[in-house]
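User: Show me a protein chain along with its predicted structure.
Assistant: Here is one chain, sequence first, then structure tokens.
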Amino acid sequence: MPVVDCPACGEDEELTGRSTTDAQGDERRELTCDRCGTSWDRDTTPRCRLCGSADVEGILTSTLQERGRGDQWAPSGIRTAYYCWSCRGADVTSSSPLPAPQPPPGSGTDLTDLRRRGR
């Protein structure tokens, strides 16, 4: 199943896109199908692959590491996993999401309380 395809002709290979910022400062992605010429805005909102909800939150889960000098390891980035507050699925934007109950790292109740307080 393609990640993105043209809503008019179904093409998923010959697509071009560009990033723009709208008047409110939100980033938009405009895609154009090179086959039929259709242009559309791509929704960049993360969605749960299990239930379809947009009520997902990215949580920094681990530091990616690579070999540095000698036997030392050096941080090279941080991995973000998205958790769904609707179905409680874990890593829901990946190609292999985990169904509930998979609480986010730490205590699931701590994160729920943090969210209720509005951070």
